[in-house]
Design goal:
Radius of gyration: 27 Å
Number of strands: 14
CATH superfamily of the largest domain: Alkaline Phosphatase, subunit A
Shape: globular
CATH topology of the largest domain: Alkaline Phosphatase, subunit A
Helix content: 40-55%
Largest sheet: 8 strands, mixed
CATH architecture of the largest domain: 3-Layer(aba) Sandwich
Number of helices: 19
Strand content: 5-15%
CATH class of the largest domain: Alpha Beta
Length: 579
């Protein structure tokens, strides 16, 4: 960031540092007031234990914050709590080295600061003597003045994260935030029933969306498939980004099989994820539902049970549905969501030998896809709709065999893991082409979300992070070797498939038709407290904390700013209204 910008992160960040420090001082200051009347040794012991416990807790949160930021690009907040029911998942993204080194750091740094506190503070407390009772009023006055730094001053509005935002570089703004203040602020600020993303009257917001969306619902799709009722295999590839797919302008030699397969099917070259995690990507793909900036509808069974569901619609069309995953189906409450979707046939990590698991997430992709292929061997009862979700290309990128790009850096491990899964997908496609059902089957390969790795230029949450591949293959395609450059995203998939199959897609109220070639086509994605909206003519990436655009480019920025705010407001209101 440069020396001056780095220095400013401390200067601006001091506001939240001071505010959180003042919160912590309330109890010790009140105890000091009592020490006028009570033995100071007892007060000192209480303050010592109070401070030691907080030092241990805050150093643990420090380590969690550092690791989560690397993956999520946002400072520690209440999102952490949604994973407490599956603690093994919380640490699954970290390598064994990170866990061990982090634990050692936690113990050492906590021990050091507890010792330092005892040397500097506890000795001074012991010097406090019982005094004239009027002194307690002095301590009370001092304690009362803590309200000023807590609020960040005497202004009408209390301090918040936007007060420390000072730069057009979002990493600098994030660096200025006190992670403890951010976490406990999110913890204590419960929803008040109001939509925090409301910018327009609800009718105006709907009009902004419908004015553009209504022209994108229809398309001439006669040339896409050679049948109205093909079998469908949906392969969801964990964390695959366009940045390592050469045919999309990414790095060469990583996804060699995907590059070759793109010549045999329909490649979507301007396709985007709507969120940045699996629990956001699956509802986007299967329900045509936008993620929420700081929540996950997959983890809310009372809300997601009312969502439109592609598997349920396929069942209505006569399809038999299955879901395959090599890990724990309880991750992110995925099991409940999928059962709400109507799926009854599951294969998960419990169906595999533990020797075939990596140390964190589940069974290796080659074993997983071999089981998928085994269940698809020979003649099948048509029509079927089977979904497979891979996992090896998730951190910490563990798999047997050779790391094609080595494992000296996280990015090379990432490349190697995707090269491994790419080979697995290539082997599966070679198998599929020999099966009797292949000629009447549509195979869709899609990523569950984009990725921060490899690093990209520009804003962290720019479209480069969210752009992903989608490739259609199989004998059910009418034409092959096509490239569709329409702007589209995951929420458009279910609507478009049902349109091809003459199914009912009216419930998918946030979707558009992928094959509509209008210049008004757009994609909208969500990240923590922000959104990005783009067309071929412009990009607008907006941050709700700073209340300013992070990135504006092209001719459509003003319209995209309004469209993005309207979609975020409308989709979050829909989330709030579901029960």
């Amino acid at each position: 960031m440069g020396f001056l910008t780095t220095l400013k992160t401390f200067v601006y960040g001091l506001q939240l540092d001071t505010s959180f420090t003042a919160y912590l001082c309330f109890i010790p200051f009140l105890l000091m007031m009592i020490s006028v009347f009570v033995d100071s040794k007892k007060i000192g012991t209480i303050i010592k234990w109070y401070s030691s416990i907080l030092i241990v807790i805050f150093n643990l949160l420090l380590i969690i914050d550092a690791n989560l930021y690397q993956s999520w690009g946002t400072r520690l907040d209440a999102t952490l709590l949604t994973y407490l029911n599956t603690p093994e998942v919380m640490v699954a993204s970290a390598s064994t080295y990170q866990i061990i080194s982090g634990t050692v750091f936690w113990i050492v740094i906590s021990f050091f600061f507890i010792k330092l506190f005892n040397r500097v503070i506890t000795k001074k407390i012991k010097k406090v003597q019982q005094s004239f009772w009027l002194q307690s009023f002095v301590f009370l006055l001092i304690t009362a003045t803590l309200i000023i730094p807590i609020r960040g001053g005497l202004q009408t509005t209390p301090i918040n994260q936007s007060n420390v935002y000072f730069s057009s570089e979002m990493f600098a703004n994030h660096a200025a935030i006190n992670y403890n203040w951010n976490f406990f602020n999110a913890l204590t600020h419960k929803p008040n029933g109001k939509n925090p993303y409301k910018c327009f009257d609800k009718n105006i917001a709907r009009n902004i969306i419908s004015k553009r969306r209504n022209s994108l619902l229809d398309s001439n799709t006669d040339r896409i498939l050679n049948t109205k009722k093909p079998n469908v295999l949906l392969i969801i590839w964990e964390g695959l980004t366009f940045k390592i797919v050469e045919v999309l302008g990414g790095e060469p030699n990583v996804t060699e099989n995907l590059n070759k397969l793109s010549e045999e099917g329909i490649l979507f070259t301007n396709f985007y994820a709507n969120g940045d995690r699996t629990d956001k990507g699956i509802p986007a793909i299967l329900s045509g539902y936008y993620p929420q900036p700081s929540k996950s509808i997959m983890k809310r069974p009372n809300k997601n049970r009312s969502l439109p569901m592609l598997p349920r619609k396929m069942i209505e069309l006569g399809y038999k549905t299955s879901f395959y995953y090599g890990g724990d189906l309880n991750f992110g409450n995925m099991n409940t969501y999928l059962r709400n979707a109507g799926i009854t046939n599951f294969v998960d990590g419990n169906d595999f030998d533990k020797k075939d698991w990596n140390s964190k997430w589940g069974v290796h992709d080659h074993v997983f896809m071999q089981r998928f292929a085994k269940d698809l061997s020979g003649k099948q009862n048509d029509p079927f709709f089977k979904i497979a979700l891979t996992l090896t290309s998730h951190e910490p990128y563990e798999f047997p065999g050779t790391y094609k790009f080595g494992k000296d850096t996280e990015e090379n491990k990432f490349r190697s893991a995707h090269a491994y899964t790419d080979k697995v997908i290539g082997d599966f496609m070679n198998f599929a082409k020999k099966q009797p059902w292949y000629k009447n089957t549509l195979i869709i390969i899609i990523a569950d979300h984009g990725n921060r790795v490899p690093k990209h230029e520009g804003a962290f949450n720019s479209p480069k992070k969210f752009k992903i591949p989608m490739l259609w293959l199989g004998g059910a395609l009418n034409k092959t070797g096509l490239k569709i450059d329409n702007i589209s995203s995951q929420v458009d998939l279910s609507y478009s498939l049902l349109d091809l199959f003459d199914g009912d897609n009216s419930e998918f109220i946030f979707s558009k038709n992928i094959f509509n070639t209008s210049d008004k086509q757009y994609a909208h994605y969500i990240f923590n407290k922000g959104f990005g909206t783009l067309t071929k003519n412009g990009i607008c990436v907006y941050d709700y904390v700073n209340k300013k655009p992070i990135l504006e480019k092209g001719l459509d920025t003003r319209k995209l700013d309004s469209l993005g705010k309207a979609i975020t407001q409308n989709s979050y209101q829909d989330f709030m209204d579901r029960d």
